[in-house]
Write a structure and sequence with these properties.
27% of the residues lie in helices and 24% in strands. By secondary structure, the chain is an alpha/beta fold. The longest helix is centred in the C-terminal third of the chain and has 15 residues, at 167-181.
Length: 218
Amino acid sequence: MKPFSNNRINYAVALAEPKRNHEVLTIGISNIPEIEIKLEKLVKHCTCIDIDKEKLKNAKRYLNNTTLIFGDITNPKELIGKKFDTIIMLEVLEHLEDDSGTLKIIHSLLKNNGKLIISVPNKNILHIFNPVKYTQHKRHYSMNEIESLLIKSGFKIKHKNTVESLKLLFDLYTHIFFKYILRKKVRFGIFTSERDKTYMKYNNESRGMDCILVALKN
């Protein structure tokens, strides 16, 4: 597998290695569900769970082969009895009180040798300027911390990298301005180039703004 790509969406899809017989779960959805739009054309079925009814309603307009579930991954009653080949959770774990407990739930939702693709904010010093760090995030992680947490939760690490440059902060401020001031829904990163060199190579663990990992169920 050659996972490198030119942006977050394509990178995550490449890491997923989607196959026609795969069942995929995404945790958390964007106003424009770019990952699900790509994945549902490549897999047997895609499911997404989110606690935001408005986002789910908006995302429904773009999707044909994705089941949208209003629910909480920390208590996923709607997913009882279901098993997935791949679970994708980007920029969600840092919002949750019980990160360890949530990872154990995700572990239980994966098939044997199933794959988790996860990203979390890296403990990069530039995150002191992150506008959501102080209002929404419970914590940030060093690469060692997130690796250790995943291993303790029953995973083994297949791939790891740090991604995103300083432009991520400009994206965040722009996103917040549109969402809370102008009350408009826009694609995240609308004012930055689609290409991001950090997704095209392995990067120094202390430099990237986000940690992204692929973890396999033991």
